[in-house]
Amino acid sequence: MKFWNVPNTISVFRTVLIPISIILLYFGNVELKLIGVILIPLAFALDGVDGLMAKKLNQKTTLGSLLDVLADRITEYMLWIFFSGLGLVPLWAPLIVIPRGVVTDAIRAHATAKGISVYDLPKNRISRFLVSNRIPRILMGLGKAVLFTLLALVLVGLAIPSDVVFWLVVFVVTLNLARGIPVILEAGEVIGSAE
User: Fold this and answer.
1) Which stretches does DSSP call E strand in the chain?
2) Where are the domains of the chain?
3) What value does the mean pLDDT of the chain take?
4) Which of 11, 49, 107, 138 could disulfide-link 67, Cβ–Cβ 3.0 to 4.6 Å?
C-alpha cells in the first residue's frame, strides 16, 4: 500500500492549509490575511475531493479513511480553538464539539476494529438519516466552511453581525450533536462486544 497516493496527499495538504491560514490571519497584513481567508474554504472543499479521488482512482484504503477523519478533526479543532481564543466564538462551542468528536471517533475506531461501520449503528430512520445520509454531512461541512470563513473575514475588517455568527455557531453545534448522539447512544452494541 502506497502512502502518497492522490487522496492521501490531498488529505495531508488540506490539513497543512489550516495552520498556514491561522498564521496568516494572526500575524499577516491585510493581503496575507486575505490569503488566509481563502485557504479556509479551500481546505473544506478539498475534503470532498479526497474522497472522490479515492473512489475514482480505486485508491480507497483504511489508511486513507483514517487520514480523512484526522484531517477533518485537525482542521475543525484548530479553527474552533483559534476563533474561540480570539473571542469570536463562544467557549461553549468547542467545549461541546471537541469532546463529541473524540467520543464518536473512539467509537468509530472500536467499531472499525470489529468490522462494524459506525454508519450502520443507528437503528431508527431519523438517526440513520442524520448519521449516514449525505445531506446532513454536506450541511455540516458547508456550515463550518461558511462560519469559519466569515470569522476569518472579521479579522480582515469585515463587519459581520454578531447574531449571524451566533446563529451559525448554534446551527453547526446542533447539527454536530444531532449527528453524534445516535452513534453514542448505539455504541453499546460495539462496546458491549469488547473483549
Assistant:
1) none
2) 6-191
3) 88
4) 11
Which residue do the cell numbers 476569518 mark?
Answer: 152
Q: CA 67 to CA 62: how far, in whole Å? A: 9
Amino acid 118: pLDDT: 66
Burial class (CB in 10 A: 0-12, 13-18, 19+), 99: exposed
Spatial separation of the C-alpha atoms in residues 110 and 104, rounded to whole Å: 10
How many CB atoms lie under 10 A from the CB of residue 139? Answer: 15
For residues 84 and 172, what is the distance between their CA atoms, to the nearest angstrom?
14
Calculate what percentage of the chain has a pLDDT beyond 70. 95
Q: Which residue has the cell 471517533?
A: 105
Closest CA to 128 of 118, 113, 114: 118
pLDDT tier at 160 (50, 70, 90 boundaries)? very high
Residue 10 has pLDDT above 90, yes or no: no
Cβ(67)–Cβ(143) under 8 Å? no
Task: Return the CATH fold of 6-191.
Answer: Four Helix Bundle (Hemerythrin (Met), subunit A) (1.20.120)
Assigned C-alpha cell, 111: 467499531
Q: What share of the chain is helix, strand, coil (3-state, %, to 5)?
A: 80, 0, 20
Q: How many residues does the chain have?
A: 195
Long-range CB pairs of 132-141, under 8 A, 24+ apart, other chains included: 136/175, 136/178, 136/179, 137/179, 139/175, 140/172, 140/175, 140/176, 140/179, 141/44, 141/47, 141/48
